[in-house]
Specification:
By secondary structure, the protein is mainly α. 77% of the residues lie in helices and 2% in strands. It has a two-stranded parallel ribbon with strand order 1-2. The two termini are 16 Å apart.
Length: 263
Amino acid sequence: MIKKYKFTKNRWRLAVRTLPLILIVIVAKYLAHYYDVEFLTLNALFTAIISANIFLIGFLITGTLSDFKESERLPGELAASLQVMADEAHIIYLNKKSNESLDLLNSVKDLNEKIIDWFYKKTKTDELYLSLLGLNQHFLNIEPQTQANFIVRIKNEQNNIRRNISRIHTIRETSFLGTGYAIAEIITTILIIGLIFVNLNPFHEKMFFVSFVSFMMIYMIFFIKDLDNPFSYYETDSLVEEVSLKPVVDSRDRIEKLISTLN
């Protein structure tokens, strides 16, 4: 049975997630103005700290984007390797009409399905590696039925899948500069508190600039933290679009159709 997965999310969810915090800042700023407790002055040092924080956030975004750009090609490489193994098994079946090649084709399809479930953390990484290891017996079974270079080709694709799974697992389970996130969050919090108590005139301008600067900094903190894991399909509160799994799902569908033509 073909499972359906959702690959895209509302682009405005991150902004909506940020708005309640901005409303708190606006209310706090209004109360500070109403009770006349705006005891800070806007000086060059304050604006320099804002610029430094924006620079730090830009640095964090640059680091996470490099991982994101690499991650974009990984599902496509997984799909290509799975498709190559399925094609080789299909060729052997057309030539020999052997059950061994059909078993390999079915195992590749099952592996494809497990990879999709693994992205959603429905399958553990160790189980996925065991499924990859289980292909070795199928390679031994079809070895007498094909040329050596065919076996070498599918073994190379097996190794490519293992390498890509290892890379995805590393990206998914580790954060880019966790201490960098911490200092960015601390500085952003201090700056927002400072903006609440800074004295600006006129009133409508102070409300606009405080809400705008706060929105920008909070939004970017949320953005880089969520962007740090482009494979967060299993997280219900993920706010930005992840890397598309469509190549892997399309590969699964093509292999299933291929098997259906042989039965």
